[in-house]
Structures are given as C-alpha cells and as structure tokens.
Amino acid sequence: MTDTSQLRLGITYVPYLHPEHLRDLAQAAQECGLDDLWVWEDCFKQSGVAAAAAALAWTDTVRVGIGLLPVPLRNVALTAMEIATLSRLFPGRLLPGIGHGVQPWMGQVGARVGSPLTLLREYATALRRLLAGKEVSVNGRYVQLDAVTLDWPPAEPPALGIGGDGPKSVALAGELADVYLLSAARTDAEIADAYAIASAARQRRDPGAPALPMVSAPITATGPGARERVDAEIPFWGKEPDPGIGSAGDAEKVAADFRRLAGLGVTTIAVQPTRDEPDLLGLVEFLGREVKPLLAAG
After folding, report:
1. Which one is the CATH code of 8-296: 3.20.20.30, 1.20.1250.20, 3.40.47.10, 3.40.50.1010?
2. How high is the pLDDT of residue 3?
3. What is the pLDDT of residue 7?
4. What are the tens digits of pLDDT across the range 17-53?
5. What torsion, rounded to 10 degrees, do the Cα atoms 283, 284, 290, 295 define?
6. Which of 13, 38, 143, 257 could be disulfide-bonded to 65 (CB atoms 3.0-4.6 Å)?
7. 3-class secondary structure for the chain?
8. How far apart are CA 120 and CA 12, in angstroms?
9. In what residue span(s) does the Luciferase-like domain sit (predicted)?
C-alpha cells in the first residue's frame, strides 16, 4: 500500500460556480482541515489572481493554488508583480501555476501565438528571474523586457507550477517547474506517462533532483448517483466516461482511489466537484472529516 500520510488534499473552486460562493468554500476548506484550495483562471469566467487574493485573505492556514494562469493573456511583468504582492502578504501560502491557456479562447482575445511552447519557456524563465529579484532584460520571440526589476520581490519566491497535456508541454514542465499540474480527466496510464516524461526532463536538467511534485484534480462525487455525475462531467474534458477516470463512492472508495494516484507520483489531490454537485460544502466536509483521516493513516 502506498504511504499517503504526506499526500495533500484540497478542493478546487471551479469557475462555473458563482463568485459569491468562494468565501464559504474557502472557509469550509479550512474548518474541515483540508490542506489546499485551488482556483482557476478560465476565459471569460473569473480571475485567478483576484480569487486567490480573496481566498488567502479569508483564511489563515490553507495553501491557495492557481491552476493556472494563461500566459498569452498576461504580460509577464504584471504576473510577477501580482504573485510577488500576494507572496509578501501571505508568505508560504500561494502556489501559482502557469500554462498555455485554451487556444480557442486565446484566439478570441487576439492573444494566440504561433509557438505556445516557445512562449511558455520564455515566460517561465523570465518570471522565475523576476520573482528572484533579478534585473531582467530579454528580447525573445514573445517576451521582451528592458531592465525590469521588481521593487518588492517575495522574500522567498513561491514554487512555480506549470500545466500542459502534450508530451512536449509535459517535458517543459518537468524542466522548468517546481510542480507539475495535471488536468482533470486523466486515466492512470496518462498520469503515469506524464510523470515519466516530466521526471526524465527534470533529471536531464538537474541529475539527482528529487521527484517532481505533481497535482492531480480528479473529478469526485459521493452520495446517491455519484458515479453517474462523474461520468456526466468527463465529456466536458473531451473524454468518454471511464471507471478509471475520477472517483465516486464512500470515503473508503475515494481514499483508495487517491492512494492509487499517490502510487503514480501524485503528491497533491485537488478534488474537482461536478458542475451539478448538490452539496458543495457537504463534499468539503466529507473530504476533510472522512477521507483525509484515512489518507493520514498511510
């Protein structure tokens, strides 16, 4: 059995929920003992930075992750300023993530680029240097900075997450990220393949580096009709319903599914509720009061 005593467990605040629900969800996550709250930045729903700032202000202990900020949409200096500000206001509690963004959405706002991989590499490299307090000058294909330095860089730069599904994007995350962010509807085989690709890229860059932390967002439900609700959610991610995707059932079943993910290299579970979840705060309590103790037992 995989030791899951160190596995982080959190809830994802999906942006098809009304923004007014965020405060209750964030505070419930903390009260029920969850480790993390994750927010998204989806076009044209909600701001990941604004949601993260509010959630951090409403809580004291939970880590808030942003999974993820679409880099074509955001100037890297602005993103660095926002991350630095939040990191100084709430030290050690922010985990920002970046990625390509959904390409049709990027096209809608005139931000789609010819080489998303090139942009993400340039962006991640510049962002890391800015957050480290360096003066950054770069004249890349997409990122141009002329002697930019943050006045208030974080005292300790936060870990940087990178997400992406294709093999080249996964390898780039393994090379440049501190944390790899998986998308929601992944099979075990897809997770194992991503872990292998990211880990190999990490070792090429830094031989002997520790294993790359990995965040999974399994679609999860409990109670009557749980499997049916999970299966109805999976097609939104371009997949066919599959019993190996997501988790549905009682605490023992859900904990067993999460242990299986930990065995594939996952270090953080950021549960994604279905969009028809009838009792969101009840799901948070179920995770914190029933599932987390089972995971903590190892």
Report:
1. 3.20.20.30
2. 80
3. 97
4. 999 999 999 999 999 999 999 999 999 999 999 999 9
5. 120
6. 38
7. CCCCCCCEEEEEECCCCCHHHHHHHHHHHHHCCCCEEEECCCCCCCCHHHHHHHHHHHCCCCEEEEEEEEHHHCCHHHHHHHHHHHHHHCCCCEEEEEECCCHHHHHHCCCCCCCHHHHHHHHHHHHHHHHCCCCEEEECCCCEEEEECCCCCCCCCCCCEEECCCHHHHHHHHHHCCEEECCCCCCHHHHHHHHHHHHHHHHHHCCCCCCCCEEECCEEECCCCHHHHHHHHHHHHCCCCCCCCCEECCHHHHHHHHHHHHHCCCCEEEEEECCCCCCHHHHHHHHHHHHHHHHHCC
8. 24
9. 18-225
Give the model's confidence band at 166: pLDDT under 50 very low, under 70 low, under 90 confident, else very high.
Answer: very high
At 118-127, the pLDDT tens digits run 999 999 999 9
The reported pLDDT for the residue numbered 298 is 84
What CA–CA distance (Å, rounded) separates 217 from 259? 14
